[in-house]
Specification:
heterodimer, A: 4 strands, B: Rossmann fold, binds adenosine-5'-triphosphate, binds magnesium ion
Chain lengths: ~350, ~500
């Protein structure tokens, strides 16, 4: 019988392991941009921006964008979008804060109720999970476009947050153990309690990013996420249960938004129904700037982390430079458009 | 005017990690059909994309009517009278056939407005002229691959181009449509059009071409008059060695029935279909384009829910409403439409290969990466896959190599029943006989194989038994011994002929 094999060694394949500088530059360009921005701001603000106290501040703010961005990375890889994260953040913040109030005050939501702090945190996260799960069901089972489903949820969750706070006044007077989640440190300084090493929100952000990196790169679920974004029909034919994966992804996004909300409420010591407005835009920008493709199937968590740092630095820098908040919104709009143009170029048919 | 309408000289093209073309040449004469031959990844499509203006060349020169030309986009190609039917169908699914044909060259009313009506009328004329039975206003996404292929063909010939490139135009259509296409080509040739024809089907090459050029691994090997070529010579030029048996049928022991489909119904193309397959058997599904062959198997696999009917695997009835249920029941399906339902373009070769078998490749959801690497590497070698690495995005592979990856995807799931819709679509002769040998081996291991094929020699050469579909009905069954082309064609056209009679 005829034995047919092609000689693989004679292929016109030039050393593929050779260092490809173009590829390297494209991959890590974003890191360079970040360094450039930090340096430029340091000069423009005469060093104020790199003052340690300011840096800690930036990084605490970044952790909210970053935590949400991690969930958003999963969503965008599958060709979805989650516009409801800011509202979910607000809703979870007020729910958690209302249950973490020191009993007895006149502005306490639930008079006479005193639950442990972990219950408050858990309630906040559960609200986020429920909202995310609902998004998932609407998209996977009712076949709504992600944009539409989460736009609806954006409005619903924000509305519920307003209703929940009643007169719109924030829930304050929170227990110190709760506030410690946002203000404390992994290793507190014994003498000066408001100082220490590794701020907790930052530690949690890093933990979330590491876990997500592991999930995307080393688990079946991660492969499925990329596969759905790569070609949903082909993914289904390959045996992937699209609805199940979709629902889990939007639930993750909801839980992470809620986590950011809880940490935020703890950081400022109160739960306000307007928290997180507009943060969805920051998170989406961080994800796209970080190299996740709007065309699906491509994305890395580390990119989102760097993207979040970049957005946080820009936000903070513009504040320090006294740029009007309205102009800041314009600047961010420009950044997202530029990032998408770069994405288009990078991932369109190269030749 | 000179002898050649096109001269391509010293063409070199590189992609990251790949030298796709190395100093190659190609000359075309008006009124002749020039076949471009070569194994998967030899560089045929790349060279033609350069001629059509889709890719820019790194080195070399193109002369049209002895004048050098520079092209920087597909519209430049069209402006120079060059049309191309691409191997990967490139249409906009939301638009109608007419709108796709006139994409970028929309017909306008006197007032300068784009007119759908004008385009539909013009398209209808083209379709009538060439006997194409498709509604010009139908959206492309509602069409089968074969219909879409016919629209692409119409698009290429609609503009009286002087040079028409056909990159595997027959990979998705059956013999009848192939015959019609060849009639079209003869007409065009009479009108003085130069035609480049790329195919992996040997008999077509000799049926249609005047000249043949062979490429191997990105280099030019030979150009000859077709009359001076024969099959063996051509193959040895392509693969660089002799190849004797094209359909190496391995004798396998035929065992008990493993899949029983009974009274399956779904829409217009699956009507009360019943059939069985046994272990060790290769069952061929024959029929014309649009006869429902693919639809039956896609329904069995749960891509579309069936309206009624039962499916039994190993004697037990199974409910299959989604592909994952079919996979759990031990089925695998390599679909017909590579681009739409097969590849995940931006994902790596490795991810594309392993995606359907991740249950086997993971422990409690965590991937066993070394195992994945090892088995993917084995597949790569077994199928002589041409790719710079397993990391490469699958969309950058040549068409035939993408097909090999998809075949590997299903081999890795180790199914009991493997359904393959056009197993060797776009695959070169060498790899083709390797895939046929592999199918034989799988049968020998006691697996059942169901094969849809539009290639009669493949059906006749590989199948132990052939069932024939016509307009959604399973109209007949022939054993390997009785199977002849005439017999199968007679069954396949049964209703059509009755309608005429
Ligand atoms: N866009 C691209 N990026 C990277 N490599 C590419 C790209 N397009 C083609 N190649 C590589 O160039 C080589 C030639 O590919 P080409 O598509 O021309 O082959 P082909 O002869 O048409 O093969 P087939 O018969 O399988 O269609 C292959 O090794 C392929 O992997
Ligand atoms: Mg090709």
């Amino acid at each position: 019988m005829s034995k047919v094999t092609t000689n693989t060694e004679s292929l016109p394949v030039v050393a593929s392991k050779k260092f490809d500088i173009g590829h390297f530059a494209r991959t890590y360009m974003i890191v360079g941009v970040l360094i450039l921005f930090v340096a430029a701001l340091a000069i423009l603000t005469q060093g104020n921006s790199i003052d340690p106290r300011n840096l800690v501040n930036v990084i605490r703010q970044v952790s909210a964008i970053g935590i949400i961005g991690v969930g958003m990375t999963f969503v965008i890889i599958t060709l979805g979008i989650d516009l409801s994260v800011g509202s979910i953040l607000g809703l979870s913040a007020v729910v958690a804060a209302s249950l973490a109030q020191v009993p007895g005050g006149s502005l306490v939501k639930f008079q006479g109720v005193d639950v442990p702090v972990w219950v408050a945190v858990f309630a906040g996260l559960a609200v986020g999970a429920l909202a995310g799960f609902t998004n998932g069901i609407l998209i996977a089972k009712f076949r709504l476009a992600p944009f539409i489903a989460t736009l609806g949820m954006m409005s619903i969750a924000r509305g519920l947050a307003y209703i929940y706070t009643g007169d719109g006044r924030p829930f304050s007077g929170l227990k110190p153990e709760f506030n410690a989640l946002g203000q404390g440190y992994l290793i507190p300084n014994a003498k000066v309690p408001e100082n220490g090493l590794f701020p907790l929100p930052v530690v949690l952000f890093i933990a979330v990013a590491l876990i997500a990196t592991f999930v995307l790169s080393f688990t079946k679920f991660g492969r499925y996420t990329y596969a759905i974004g790569g070609n949903e029909v082909a993914a289904r034919v390959s045996g992937i249960r699209i609805p199940r994966v979709t629902i889990i992804i939007y639930t993750i996004s909801g839980v992470l938004a809620a986590l950011a909300g809880v940490l935020w409420a703890a950081r400022i010591g109160s739960g306000n129904s307007t928290l997180g407005q507009g943060i969805e835009l920051d998170a989406i920008t961080a994800v796209i700037v970080g190299g996740t493709s709007f065309k699906g199937g491509i994305g890395k968590i580390w990119g989102t982390v760097v993207g979040a740092l970049l957005i946080g630095t820009i936000n903070n820098g513009l504040d320090l430079l006294n740029v009007s908040p309205f102009l800041q919104i314009v600047v961010k709009g420009c950044i997202i458009i530029i990032a998408i143009i770069i994405d288009e170029r990078k991932n369109s048919k190269k030749a | 005017m000179g002898e050649y309408i096109v001269e391509m000289k010293g063409i070199t093209k590189r992609f990251p990690g790949v030298l796709a073309l190395n100093n190659v040449q190609l000359n075309l004469r008006p009124g002749l059909v020039h076949s471009l031959m070569g194994e998967n990844g030899a560089g045929k499509s790349t060279l033609m994309k350069i001629l059509a203006g889709v890719y820019t060349l790194d080195e070399g020169q193109i002369l049209l009517n002895e004048k050098p030309v520079k092209m920087s986009g597909p519209l430049d190609g069209l402006a120079n009278g060059i049309s191309m039917i691409h191997q990967e169908l490139m249409f906009i699914p939301e638009l109608s056939a007419a709108e796709n044909i006139y994409l970028g060259r929309e017909l306008r009313t006197k007032a300068g407005l784009v007119s759908k009506k004008l385009m539909i009328e013009a398209t209808q004329k083209i379709f009538d002229r060439w006997n194409i039975n498709i509604d010009p206003s139908a959206q492309m996404k509602t069409m089968s691959v074969a219909q879409a292929q016919m629209v692409e063909i119409a698009k290429a010939i609609a503009f009286n181009s002087k040079i028409i490139i056909m990159d595997e135009p027959t990979s998705a259509i059956t013999e009848r449509e192939v015959a019609r296409l060849h009639e079209m080509i003869r007409d065009l040739r009479k009108a003085g059009t130069a035609i480049v024809y790329i195919t992996h089907k040997m008999d077509e090459v000799f049926a249609i071409s005047d000249e043949v050029t062979v490429f191997r691994d990105g280099t030019w090997v030979a150009t000859e008059k077709a009359s001076k070529m024969d099959r063996d010579k051509l193959i040895s030029l392509m693969v660089g060695r002799e190849l004797n048996q094209l359909f190496p049928k391995v004798e396998a022991e035929i065992g008990e029935v493993i899949l029983e489909v009974e009274g399956l119904n779904r829409g217009r193309l699956v009507k009360d279909v019943s059939f069985t397959v046994r272990r060790g058997e290769i069952l061929g599904f024959a029929g014309l384009m649009g006869s429902g062959r693919s639809e039956v198997l896609e329904t069995v696999f749960g891509i579309y829910p069936s309206e009624s009917g039962t499916i039994k695997v190993k004697g037990k009835e199974v409910k299959i409403r989604e592909p994952h249920q079919a996979i759990s029941a031990g089925l695998g399906l390599l679909t017909e439409d590579r681009k739409k339902t097969g590849i995940m373009g931006v994902l790596s070769v490795r991810d594309n290969m392993s995606v359907a078998a991740l249950d086997r490749f993971s422990v409690m959801g965590v991937l066993r990466r070394p195992m994945i690497d090892r088995e993917c590497e084995d597949q790569r070698q077994a199928l002589a896959l041409k790719t710079p690495s397993l990391e490469q995005q699958i969309q950058n592979l040549s068409g035939g190599n993408q097909q090999k990856v998809l075949l590997s995807r299903w081999l890795l799931t180790d199914p009991d029943i493997l359904i393959i819709d056009e197993p060797t679509r776009g695959i070169d002769v060498g790899a083709k006989s390797e895939i046929h040998r592999l199918m034989g081996e799988l049968a020998k291991q006691g697996k059942a194989i169901i094969m849809v094929s539009s290639e009669m020699p493949e059906i006749l050469g590989m199948s132990d038994r052939v069932v024939v579909m016509c307009e959604g009905h399973l109209v007949g069954e022939v054993s390997r011994k009785e199977a002849t082309q005439e017999k199968i064609m007679e069954l396949a056209t049964r209703f059509a002929d009755e309608a005429v009679a």
